[in-house]
Amino acid sequence: MTIPLSNATLKDLPDGARTPSYDRATLTPGIVHIGLGNFHRAHQQWYLHRLMNRGRALDWAIVGAGVRPADATARQKMLDQDGLTTLIELDPSGKSAEVIGPMIDFAPVTAGNADLIARMAAPEIRIVSLTVTEGGYFQTADGSFDADHPDIRHDAATPDMPKTAFGAMVEALRRRREAGQGPFTCQTCDNLQNNGEILRQTVVGLAKLSDPDLADWIDQSCTFPNSMVDCIVPATGPAELSLVREFGIADAVPVTHENFRQWVIEDRFCAGRPDYDAVGATFTDDVHAYEAMKIRLLNGGHQVIANPGEILGVETIAGCMEHPLIHALFRKVEIEEIAPHVQPVPDMTPAAYIELIGTRFANPEIRDTTRRVAFDGSSRHTGFILPVVRDALKADAPVEGLALVEALWARMCEGTREDGSEIAPNDPHWDDLQRAAIEAKSRPRAWLEQRRWYGDLANASRFADAFDRWLDMIWSQGTEAALKQYTAQ
User: Fold this and answer.
1) Read out DSSP for 253-318?
2) 21: domain range?
3) pLDDT tens, 287-304?
4) Which stretches does DSSP call E strand in 49-184?
5) Where would I find the Mannitol dehydrogenase C-terminal domain in this sequence (predicted)?
6) Cα separation of 3 and 431, whole Å?
7) Which end of the chain is more exposed for a tag (fewer CB within 10 A), N or C?
8) Tens digits of per-residue pLDDT, 428-471?
9) Which of 255, 280, 261 is nearest to 97 (CA)?
């Protein structure tokens, strides 16, 4: 028997599930968060929940938001249970459940984003945060602002009826400026190096297209703190829905997560902030070193193992770590070709971090699918792997394993596994990637000639020649043969 999750039933939930100690009726909003996925609820909301359990940050409750039509479905599911979420921690020593409640509303998802704009323009909102994926910031291949994207052109032409989250932020800031209400902090929680500066580039760049004076005001008045976020949070599927029922809770949108979190943030908040550092977050002036370590070793490490896992039909990341050749690839590439381009941070060396993430990836309780981790490779390889390739080439350092990683991505994007089964489209640019991958079967360099992802790396002979060799071997002898040859070197 399960109890439907809601404010009214919190007192009736089974003893095994922890519930909020604060009175949710007393919460008032301070944050609008756009992109209310699993990671946000297991990470930012969890930190806020811990503060609220201490009787703090009660005026920093979250209003959820989304700009995609599909977000309307998520909104209704969340509102049906009063914004509550069950977090299930998956520790090898045992599972535990906790119901959290920092989110008190979810703005209607409408064309033109009028409701979202109105919520962000309200004076009590002091932070607008986002998780919109690494590829959602309208960047060109060289990292600059993509002013020619159709959605950006639309928002510049009709700023009062924007399509994008950034257009909605610009319009809300325009209204606040006109009303004399002051700016809000713009905070990204996505896995991008210098993510705050990238968000600034997008918001200010968009504003310049329609109102240069407003753009200057945003640039000078708003703050865009860089941050590093970390917690492995699988997607929710039938197994997760079944698991929450085992705790006696009927939750339509439960979230599972590992027993590790990290949040490193620049302390630049123009309109105040919750005291996240009181519950484990780190405020620092040097986020870059932390984010470089995490993005290159953890996020990059995910891409190292996910593509061969997909090709070989390994369903989970823990399964990839159990596969001796994929595990050997992970360790060799991480230690020999990525770690030399990562600086240590206080209390953590790159070598120690590799050991830590190896343990986390291998957690058998975390059913993090290979498909989820391999999703959106066009953003993840360009953000996590290719900057290391460029640093290695400049330093005349090894790139053989990195070239193999890229060849495995090319092989995966052809769309079939080695057992002949189909790999369903798994990237916003899948059609383009698949065309290049099919051509690369007979002419490997065709893959690297995708300049939107690789820039001029096709002309870097040391990397490109190694890539050609590995892709030829993968197609002629198989993925395991290539892994064996590389890891035996």
Assistant:
1) S-EEE-S--EEEE----BTB---GGGGT-EE-S-HHHHHHHIIIIIIHHHHHHHHHHHHTT--BHH
2) 3-285
3) 999 999 999 999 999 999
4) 61-65, 85-91, 94-100, 103-106, 127-130
5) 286-474
6) 44
7) N
8) 999 999 999 999 999 999 999 999 999 999 999 999 999 999 99
9) 255
